[in-house]
């Protein structure tokens, strides 16, 4: 059984299918109210994350990721969207962050903290025997840890 913070911050989700188009996957991320959702292959195996960052990488031309500054590029967002509108039909598998960070149900709070600190991810998928069913977001974990810390400081101060 996970530590208390982890239990408080777990959100059950339905993972995306890696062959799903960017457009429908983006809508599911927005509806979930999360920065990203895990994606699985046809066998249900975790293959990556698709979310805010991955959508932006799909929408904006590849060179934007390598620029030190895009100040000299004078294209409006509407012009960019018109040029890249086809990305909405591309499979998300072309745009996933494939860092293999996933934890099983028996994870600890320390393990989650280590992953958030060292891998700089916003979402950690949680699996049961390799099948992803939930996530913990960095924001939820931070808020739970901060609340617990402040409560303890207050208790020790009285």
CATH architecture: Roll
The total domain count is 1
Per CATH, what is the topology? CBS-domain
Helix content: 40-55%
Class derived from helix and strand content: alpha/beta
Q: Give the C-alpha Rg.
A: 18 Å
Q: How confident is the prediction overall: mean pLDDT?
A: 87
Work out the strand percent.
15-25%
Number-wise, the strands total: 7
What string, H for helix and E for strand, traces the elements in order? HEEHEEHHEHEEH
Low-pLDDT segments, ≥5 res? none
What does the overall shape look like? globular
CATH H-level superfamily title: CBS-domain
Q: What CATH first level would be assigned?
A: Alpha Beta
Strand order of the largest sheet: 1-7-6-5
Write the layout of secondary structure elements.
Blueprint: H1 4-9, E1 11-12, E2 16-17, H2 22-32, E3 36-40, E4 46-51, H3 52-59, H4 77-84, E5 103-104, H5 109-119, E6 123-128, E7 131-137, H6 138-157
Written description of the protein model:
- The protein has 158 residues and is an alpha/beta fold.
- The chain has one domain: CBS-domain.
- Helices cover 41% and strands 19% of the residues.
- The chain is globular and about 60 Å long.
- The chain starts with a helix and ends with a helix.
- The mean pLDDT is 87.
Key structural traits:
41% helix; 4-stranded mixed sheet; CBS-domain; 7 strands; alpha/beta; 158 residues; 3-stranded mixed sheet
Task: Please sum up the structure shown.
It is built from 6 helices and 7 strands. By secondary structure, it is of the alpha/beta class.
């Amino acid at each position: 059984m996970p530590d208390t913070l982890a239990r408080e911050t777990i959100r059950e989700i339905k993972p995306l299918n890696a062959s799903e188009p960017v457009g429908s996957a983006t809508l599911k991320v927005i509806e979930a109210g999360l920065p990203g959702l895990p994606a699985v292959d046809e066998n249900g195996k975790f293959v990556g994350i698709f979310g805010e960052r991955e959508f932006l990488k799909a929408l904006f031309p590849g060179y934007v990721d390598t620029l030190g500054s895009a100040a000299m590029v004078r294209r409006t967002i509407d012009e960019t969207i018109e040029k890249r509108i086809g990305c909405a039909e591309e499979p998300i598998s072309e745009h996933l962050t494939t860092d293999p960070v996933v934890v099983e149900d028996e994870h600890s709070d320390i393990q989650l903290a280590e992953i958030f600190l060292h891998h700089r991810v916003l979402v950690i998928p949680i699996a049961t025997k390799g099948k992803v069913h939930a996530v913990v977001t960095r924001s939820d974990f931070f808020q739970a840890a901060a609340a617990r810390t402040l409560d303890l400081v207050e208790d020790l101060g009285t």
